[in-house]
Amino acid sequence: MTTAPRPRTSTRDPEELTRRLTAWLATRLPGARAAGVTVPASNGMSSETLLFDIDHPEAPVPSCVLRLAADPAAYTVFSVYDMGRQYRTLKLVSERTDVPVPRVLWLEEDPGPLGAPFFVMERIAGRVPPDVMPYTYEGSWLHAASDAERERLEAATVGLLARLHDQAPLPEAEFLALPGRGDALRRHVTAQRAYYAWVIEGLARSSLIEAAFDRLERLWPRDPGAPVLTWGDARIGNVVYDGFEPVAVLDWEMAALAPREVDLGWTVYLHRFFQDLTAGSGQRGLPGFLRRDRVEARYARLTGHTPRDMDFYTLYAALRHAIVMLRIAYRQAYFGEVAVPADPDTLILHHDSLRAMVQGTYWVG
């Protein structure tokens, strides 16, 4: 992980983006200029991020973040980028819950100004647990924290999920209902099956991912319960912290109506993903942090809802993550950054842990 090149994220010209952004900004705030435009080194692969300041005496906020739909020429990670849906989700969470999210300023659904739809939101100061190198590695600020400080961060983060699920009004979140038949969980999994089919179109299939889908059906919950507004990408790497308290929850592109456990399983497994990588490299990591039993117990105390069928939901999280990783690997192959091996399952970084989940041995011991 220390030497592998970061996958290519865009074919766009940063200088051209800056020029076009300044021209667009003047249409929203006459006389305004975009200053200090930068593309962060940690720019994601599901959409693009620009950071800039507004040079204007009446700027609504001094510093902004622009989320731009993915470059269609860059072998996108997802098939659809609905920036309006993300914008509406942020506004709903901001207005109807006390979960901290950045203030959204403008939505531009016309692809003309920057080549794709985008929205602009306030930039929140703070620090985020890094993905590269993972926060579980020695040297990260979270790894260097005390047990008590990590306990504070864990408690506050689980509290975010509890408040989101309890406070977001379901009728107003209906625009997040996924299409299809059946209850919210069945629709969610059906959407993932469609995503997998899109990822492998014309390419090698993954026997491991397909075995995981089969295992899901055998573990299917008898009663998934009522859906809630789920964050979707519920992990600490998408939270800005001031000290050890969350001040902004980011990345809502996977938000949907689904059982509460969809978020809980993702939170638990995405930490385990990084912890497993760390342990595999010979470091101890953070084995006591965001443990499944602790997260479940804390969530139950906060909400009165005891998480159910978590073997199913953690497997589902690992499966969803595997599909994304397979797409990213095929994307790297498209740009000539990697070669596709004979067994495409090896492109999935966590194939060993996913296989153990399929076999029912991962959470043993």
Can you give a write-up of this model?
- By secondary structure, this protein is of the alpha+beta class.
- It is 41% helix and 13% strand.
- The protein is built from 10 helices and 9 strands.
- It has helices at 14-28, 83-96, 141-144, 147-167, 184-199, 207-218, 260-280, 292-303, 310-334, 351-359; strands at 33-38, 47-55, 63-69, 104-108, 118-122, 228-230, 239-242, 245-249, 256-258.
- Strand 1 and strand 2 form a beta hairpin.
- Helix 4 (147-167) crosses helix 8, helix 6 (207-218) runs parallel beside helix 10 (351-359) and helix 7 packs across helix 9 (310-334).
- Residues 44-276 form the Aminoglycoside phosphotransferase domain.
- This is Phosphotransferase family protein.
- It comes from Streptomyces rameus.
- Quaternary state of the chains: single chain
Helix content: 40-55%
CA(first)-CA(last) distance: 28 Å
DSSP summary, beta strand count: 9
For the biggest β-sheet, the strand order reads 1-2-3-5-4
Main β sheet profile: 5 strands, antiparallel
Sum up the overall morphology in one term. Answer: globular
Structural class by sheet pairing and helices:
alpha+beta
Domain Aminoglycoside phosphotransferase: 44-276
Organism: Streptomyces rameus
Protein name: Phosphotransferase family protein
Pfam family, one: APH
